[in-house]
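Re: that chain you flagged

S.,

Sorry for the slow reply, it's been a week of failed gels. I finally had a moment to sit down with the sequence you sent. For the record, here it is as I used it:
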Amino acid sequence: MTTDPFGTSGRREAVLAAWESSPTRFREDANAEEDLVLGGYADRVLVELAQNAADAAVRAGVPGMLRLWVDDGVLIAANTGAPLDEGGVDGLTSLRASAKRGADTAGRFGVGFAAVLSVSDEPEVRSTGGGLRFSAARTRAHVAELGGVAAEEAARRDGQVPVLRLAWPVDEPPTEGFDTEVRLPLRPAAEPHVRDLLTGFDPAILLSLPALAAVEVEGRLVERSMDGDDVVITDNGLPTRWRLARASGDIPAELLAGRPVEERERSRWSVLAAVPVSPDGVLLHLDGEQVVHAPTPSGEPLSLAIRLVASFPLDPARRRVSPGPLTDFLVAESASVVAELASRLAAEPSALALVPRPALARATLDAQLCSAILAALVET
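Prediction finished late last night. Pasting the structure tokens below so you have them in one place:
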């Protein structure tokens, strides 16, 4: 008999009762989940899985290991670190109610797991302390049994239901050697896209998620190590050296006054700027279009050829940086860190590539950063 350590039966009853008693609750849940899947979290499934693995490693205080692969149409993400617990279940089954409130975790809003719905209708989480299974089909069946407004709304949506609100227990353990495993049976149309994402996995994501020591992607091993002050990321035996500058501190209380309650509990700020360099310290060209990372990729373009990771406040979809005093403060701190990085490369003519040109800025935040960095470089 399947055990139910997280009380999913009671959780389902509570959600179904809410859907039955409120004429709008089902619609609200369906709209919120759909907005995330179709908008902010589309194409982020690997990033979100990596971020969850990094947070689990932080909570357990161990070097994180993540393995990603596709087996018989199922995307599997197995990681070491803290196993699924009651707080984690709360976060998975509730929108914007994250258990990850620590200052060192990357997750913020408890909604990143919704990214899995962009590729799967039946996500499953196996962990050493128990697991969960979500199911669009089973949720539709329960909604049909409810009848009333909820069933009418589901019919109006052609059967689209909020999948992550109802969970069922899972007894199967994760793959040996790992503490948690996410299994995503892929929709047939999604599998080629997922394989493209795996092939295009960005090794430099380990700069943003330092708790991950290694990621294995379909047999391709990406490892992170330190060599003096530099980070070396090795991709299948090929190393890339990154020269860093970083800073962190406490956010002034007045800058948090207008921020959401749970965000105010994260009172530390941090900035990291990184560029690839040769073994003798010569700046190398950073390929591709850059975006601001906060800490994982946002939708904010960056015209400077640099990896910038900063704790900017983001909108709920984690695509855009929210304007305001806190962002202005972090723009200034980011400028100082980039100027420090440039000073470490000042003996190299190639360091001129770090001088921004505000006229080429691609968005409002990019223009702010370019102007602030240029001013800081003049002072440096």
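What I noticed first: DSSP finds twelve helices and 14 strands in the chain.

Talk soon,
D.
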